[in-house]
Amino acid sequence: METTKTPDPAPYVKVLEETRRFLDVPFRVAVQLGSKSMTIRDILQLKKSSIIQLQKSAGENVDILVNGILVAYGEVLDMEGNAGIRLTDIHTQT
């Protein structure tokens, strides 16, 4: 009967212990629906009920940034009158 050797958990435990002190460090999480370049003239003409058209379509994924760095994508949800975000994909750098 062949036995499988279980990896030594010591290195993982050490990493967890070393990073535990950072677990409560706050980060700014932002959801970016889109952006648009506008002239000063256009900005000065904005008023209540003005609509700024973004380049993203309704239903398209939004960008989720942590401290300004893209980390994931998500979809906007209506959570009993409040907006929520469901993560749909994790961004991996290539």
Helix content: 10-25%
User: Which geometry do the CA atoms define?
Assistant: elongated
Number of individual domains: 1
Radius of gyration: 22 Å
| Top-tier CATH class | Mainly Beta
Describe the structure in your own words:
- It is a single chain.
- With 94 residues, the protein is α+β, with helices and mostly antiparallel strands.
- The protein has one domain: Surface presentation of antigens (SPOA), CATH 2.30.330.
- 16% of the residues lie in helices and 31% in strands.
- The chain is built from two helices and four strands, in the order H-E-H-E-E-E.
- The protein has a four-stranded antiparallel beta sheet, with no helix packed on it.
- A hairpin with a 2-residue loop joins strand 2 and strand 3.
- The longest helix is centred in the first third of the chain and has 10 residues, at 10-19.
- The protein is elongated and about 70 Å long.
- 1% of the residues are buried.
